[in-house]
Amino acid sequence: MTKEPSATQIARAERMRVAAKEGAEARAVIAARDIAIRKNMDRLKALRLAKEAEDATLAASQPAPIKKRSGKTKVLAET
User: Which of 11, 13, 45, 79 is the most exposed place for a label (fewest CB within 10 A)?
Assistant: First the structure.
């Protein structure tokens, strides 16, 4: 004799099945979003590194700036 599941047991099993399916879909969406974020971060990092290298090359090719002397002179106190 096999006992047949009640209506509440069937409904509970169906809710669990739907929840598991939706959970798997949500995890897939989150994983895809994480991959897209990592790709964008890698792209931005490559752009930043290229710009830093270009700036370093440009700075190395230009002469060092000449320090200007201030036009102010110190006034000695009269005695």
Answer: 79
Question: Residues 6 or more apart from 5 whose CB is under 8 A from it?
Answer: 13
Please give the residue range of the domain that contains residue 54: 1-61
pLDDT of residue 79: 57
- In order, the DSSP letters of the chain are -PPPPPHHHHHHHHHHHHHHHHHHHHHHHHHHHHHHHHHHHHHHHHHHHHHHHHHHHHHHHSPPPPPPPPS--PPPPP-
Structure tokens that stand for 14 in this block: 């169906």
Alpha-carbon Rg for the chain, nearest whole angstrom, is: 35
Report yes or no on 76 lying in a domain. no
Q: What proportion of the chain, given as a percentage, has pLDDT over 90? A: 67
